[in-house]
């Protein structure tokens, strides 16, 4: 087993002219990527970066990210990818918590306030260095950190997960052994860098002599653009969160993808009916993966047959180097097809949470079934084994949910909402909508004399949390609903959204407003849509925006930028934007 950089450097030395990264018009060969990374690594070493240090990367999705990642690893450090789409306050929170030695950035990141406290290294100033690269990588062992990723935290603070070189090496190794890439393969990079799936999208191909095709920033939300990119670039391997896969299938995205040979899914439950719908368009194999950030991305896998059994696709069995236990609340093995909590063990477990020893001790516990000193990770996921011994996801034992593949702690949203001046209490739950899928609902109780409206709460959260963590619906109550035993009734919180959704605003006026209302009604599965109704409050989300824009083009002949809806989210505002646009 080798540390990350060794295999890449061997490939770069043996095949320097082979394509490594395709980013629009920019192409990076293995040799050029290696030389640029050497130059940047030399600068990092000059800044005193050594083995075990942490270096942040604040760059838009681009070829430059690859240069930065490999430079950090060559310098012996671990990298912390920062998603520039996140609110500035959240990025500042992560940087403050992680305390990286420096941040690699560029002019594209701007002079953000949250970057001011960290020494900057500008990737744009790095050419092909003639100087000898640092030899720090030789000091890096498999037990050194490889990267840190932040996930949602129940206390209101995101938490950094430290993944080792050994865990990453095992993750890339089993994937290549089970689903071997050839040197002609091309993997599309489209997952935002703050999510763990992006790690294998960046690195798997470059550890297998294949190439990576880079999706432009924001392009991962646009199925039409993705289909064109994948067809034109002859992408052979792609990952989809199931909710995005459904949108992609609905848009006929697989029709022209003649080079595609594998589709991976993870991040959400994969419905069997979605796989069947996909089969109508393509016979490309579909692989369902499962795993948390705390266990190097994925620890189980299932290769979907033509007709998946049951309503949901199993998450499969453990991959090499990993173990799965289904346990009861006394840590006893659950037998048969009964439900239990999933625990994970093996080489892919993270070191723990950065600067959070108490939380690390709480979630990473002694493994009573392993050897001395071995640990297991408590996932909080409820699973069962089916008749074939395959793991099937059932639900959660706590307040963690998945929205469009993003792992979200409801407690973090609640704590952030309660920090808003004028909010006394808050509770958040998930309500399912037939057309638009799951959406977050927030119930809140105002402090006396507080005068707040939904827009105030939405703005407060949008400044601090990623878009997927901002509730679609806000419901003000005199008191939060509780069960007979006095506990918060999350089911009642979720159901409170129905009362809001049943009351439409004032009727649409004029042909454009009526056309917009009709499109929204069809797209979101809502019977009545008023002029003042908000697209996102009705259950809309970013994955549906491209479809909305496409329908506006087909029915009204107006081609709007996707960003317009975020600036004009009500029927009346959106209609005015259409009327003010050139056809």
Helical residue percent?
Answer: 25-40%
Uncertain regions spanning at least 5 consecutive residues:
none
Number of separate strands? 26
Quote the distance from N terminus to C terminus: 58 Å
Q: Structural class, judged by helices and strands?
A: alpha/beta
**Overall mean pLDDT score?**
88
Give the biggest beta sheet.
Answer: 5 strands, mixed
User: Looking across the biggest beta sheet, what order are the strands in?
Assistant: 11-12-13-14-15
- Could you tell me the strand content as a percent range? 15-25%
Please name the fourth-level CATH homologous superfamily of the domain at 400-501: ANL, C-terminal domain
Quick one: CATH class of the domain at 400-501?
A: Alpha Beta
Q: What Rg, in angstroms, do the CA atoms define?
A: 24 Å
Examine the coordinates and then state which fold CATH places here, giving the name of the CATH topology of the domain at 400-501.
GMP Synthetase, Chain A, domain 3
Overall 3D form: globular
CATH architecture of the domain at 400-501: 2-Layer Sandwich
Give the number of helices: 17
Domain Carrier: 507-582
GO molecular function: 2,3-dihydroxybenzoate-serine ligase activity; phosphopantetheine binding
Organism: Lentzea guizhouensis
Pfam family, one: PP-binding
């Amino acid at each position: 087993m080798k540390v990350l950089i060794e295999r890449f450097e061997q490939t770069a030395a043996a095949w320097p002219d082979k394509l490594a990264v395709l980013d629009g018009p920019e192409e990076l060969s293995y040799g050029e990527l290696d030389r640029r990374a050497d130059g940047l690594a030399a600068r990092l070493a000059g800044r005193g970066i050594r083995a075990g240090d942490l270096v942040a990367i604040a760059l838009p999705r681009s070829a430059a990210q690859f240069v930065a990642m490999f430079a950090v690893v060559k310098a012996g450090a671990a990298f912390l990818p920062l998603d520039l789409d996140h609110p500035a306050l959240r990025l500042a929170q992560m940087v403050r918590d992680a305390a990286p030695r420096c941040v690699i950035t560029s002019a594209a990141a701007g002079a953000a306030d949250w970057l001011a406290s960290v020494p900057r290294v500008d990737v744009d100033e790095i050419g092909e260095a003639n100087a000898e690269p640092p030899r720090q990588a030789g000091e890096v062992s498999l037990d050194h950190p490889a990267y840190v990723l932040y996930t949602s935290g129940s206390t209101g603070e995101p938490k950094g997960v430290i993944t080792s070189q050994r865990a990453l090496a095992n993750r890339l190794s089993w994937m290549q052994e089970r689903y071997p890439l050839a040197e002609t393969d091309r993997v599309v990079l489209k997952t935002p860098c703050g999510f763990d799936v992006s790690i294998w999208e960046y690195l798997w191909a470059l550890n297998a002599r294949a190439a990576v095709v880079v999706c432009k920033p924001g392009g991962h939300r646009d199925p039409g653009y993705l289909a064109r990119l994948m067809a034109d670039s002859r992408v052979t391997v792609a990952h989809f969160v199931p909710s995005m896969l459904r949108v992609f299938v609905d848009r006929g995205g697989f029709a022209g993808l003649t080079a595609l040979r594998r589709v991976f899914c993870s991040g959400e439950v994969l419905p069997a009916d979605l796989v069947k719908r996909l089969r109508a368009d393509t016979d490309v194999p579909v692989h369902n993966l499962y795993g948390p950030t705390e266990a190097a991305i994925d620890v189980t896998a299932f290769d979907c047959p033509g007709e998946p059994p049951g309503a949901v696709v199993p998450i499969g069995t453990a991959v090499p180097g990993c173990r799965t236990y289904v346990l009861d609340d006394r840590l006893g093995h659950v037998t048969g097809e009964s439900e239990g909590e999933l625990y994970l063990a093996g080489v892919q477990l993270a070191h723990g949470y950065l600067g959070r020893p108490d939380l690390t001790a709480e979630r990473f516990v002694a493994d009573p079934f392993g050897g001395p000193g071995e640990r297991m990770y408590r996932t909080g996921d409820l699973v069962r084994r089916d008749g074939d011994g395959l793991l099937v996801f059932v639900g959660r034992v706590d307040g963690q949910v998945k929205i469009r593949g993003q792992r979200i702690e409801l407690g973090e949203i609640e704590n952030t909402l309660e920090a808003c001046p004028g909010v006394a209490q808050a509770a958040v739950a998930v309500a399912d909508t037939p057309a638009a899928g799951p959406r977050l609902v927030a119930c809140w109780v105002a402090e006396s004399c507080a005068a707040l409206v939904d827009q105030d709460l939405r703005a407060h959260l949008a400044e601090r949390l990623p878009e997927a963590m901002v509730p679609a619906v806000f419901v003000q109550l005199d008191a939060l609903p509780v069960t007979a035993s006095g506990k918060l009734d999350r089911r009642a919180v979720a159901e409170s959204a129905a009362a809001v959704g049943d009351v439409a605003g004032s009727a649409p006026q004029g042909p454009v407003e009526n056309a917009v209302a009709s499109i929204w009604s069809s797209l979101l599965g809502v019977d009545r849509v008023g002029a003042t109704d908000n697209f996102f409050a009705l259950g809309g989300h970013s994955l549906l925006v491209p479809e909305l824009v496409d329908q506006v083009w087909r029915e009204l002949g107006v081609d709007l930028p996707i960003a317009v809806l975020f600036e004009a989210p009500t029927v009346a505002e959106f209609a005015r934007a259409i009327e003010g646009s050139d056809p």
